[in-house]
Design a protein that fits this description.
By secondary structure, the chain is an alpha+beta fold. The chain folds into 2 domains: 2-83 and 189-205, Glutaredoxin (3-Layer(aba) Sandwich); 89-187, Glutathione S-transferase Yfyf (Class Pi), Chain A, domain 2, CATH 1.20.1050. The protein has helices spanning 20-30, 46-51, 70-78, 89-118, 127-141, 154-163, 166-169, 175-185, 188-205, and strands at residues 2-7, 34-39, 59-62, 65-68. A hairpin with a 2-residue loop joins strand 3 (59-62) and strand 4. The mean pLDDT is 97.
Length: 207
C-alpha cells in the first residue's frame, strides 16, 4: 500500500495547507489507493530524520521506495498515472517545467514574502519581486485552462496549492489566477483531500 506520511497534529493555522494535501490530492485524482500514517509533530526522532533529513513532511513509501519533498513525491506519483502527467514527451516536459516553476519561481518567492509580511515591517523588500512573478504567471494563466499538456496535471496541483494561500490570493488584482485556483479547488479530488487532512489533524486534538 502506498503510504503518505504526515504529522500527527499541527496547530489550527496551517491546517488545510500542510503539504501532504498535495499528495492526497494527486492520489484522489488518479484513483490511487493510499493510506496516511503519522510522525510526531512535537518529538521528531531519529527514525523520522532517517526518512526525511530535515524532519519535515510529507514523504511517501511505496513498495520499498521512499521519496521526500512534495514536488519529488508528486512527480513520482505522476509516473503511476497519465491522469497526473501525459506520457508523451512534450506533455511530460511541460509538466516537469511547471512543477519546477511552481517550486522555484513562485513558491520560493511567495513564502519568504509572506513571512516578512508577518513581521509587520511597513516595507517588504520582496514586494516588487513577488508582484512581478505573479503578474508574469497571470499572463500565462489568462491564455490557458491548465498549465501543461492540455490537461490537469501535478503541475496544477502544485501551482494551485501555492496560489491558494490567502495572503497570495489577496496580493493583487490577478483575475486569471483567481479563476485558475477556483477551478482547481472545485475539483472533487481536492475537496476529498482537504477534508481528509482536516479530519486527520482534528483527530490529533484528542490525543
Amino acid at each position: 500500500m502506498l503510504t503518505i506520511w504526515t504529522y500527527d497534529w499541527v496547530p489550527e493555522g496551517p491546517r488545510g495547507h500542510v503539504r501532504d494535501l498535495r499528495l492526497r490530492w494527486a492520489c484522489e485524482e488518479a484513483g490511487l489507493d493510499y493510506e496516511v500514517k503519522s510522525v510526531s509533530f512535537q518529538n521528531r526522532g531519529a527514525e523520522h530524520f532517517a526518512r526525511q533529513p530535515f524532519g519535515q513532511i510529507p514523504f511517501i513509501e511505496d513498495d520499498g521506495v521512499s521519496v521526500f519533498e512534495s514536488g519529488a513525491c508528486l512527480l513520482y506519483l505522476a509516473g503511476k498515472s497519465e491522469l497526473l502527467m501525459p506520457n508523451d514527451r512534450k506533455g511530460a516536459a511541460e509538466t516537469l517545467e511547471w512543477v519546477i516553476a511552481a517550486l522555484n519561481s513562485i513558491e520560493l518567492v511567495t513564502v519568504p514574502w509572506w513571512f516578512i509580511g508577518l513581521s509587520g515591517e511597513p516595507d517588504n523588500p520582496l514586494q516588487d519581486w513577488t508582484m512581478q512573478r505573479l503578474q508574469h504567471l497571470e499572463t500565462v494563466l489568462a491564455g490557458r485552462e491548465w498549465l501543461a499538456g492540455g490537461q490537469f496535471t501535478v503541475a496544477d496541483i502544485l501551482m494551485a496549492d501555492v496560489l491558494r494561500v490567502p495572503k497570495v490570493t489577496q496580493a493583487g488584482d490577478f483575475p486569471a489566477s483567481a479563476a485558475y485556483v477556483a477551478r482547481a479547488c472545485a475539483r472533487p479530488a481536492f475537496k476529498k483531500a482537504y477534508d481528509g487532512q482536516m479530519a486527520h489533524f482534528a483527530k490529533g486534538d484528542a490525543n
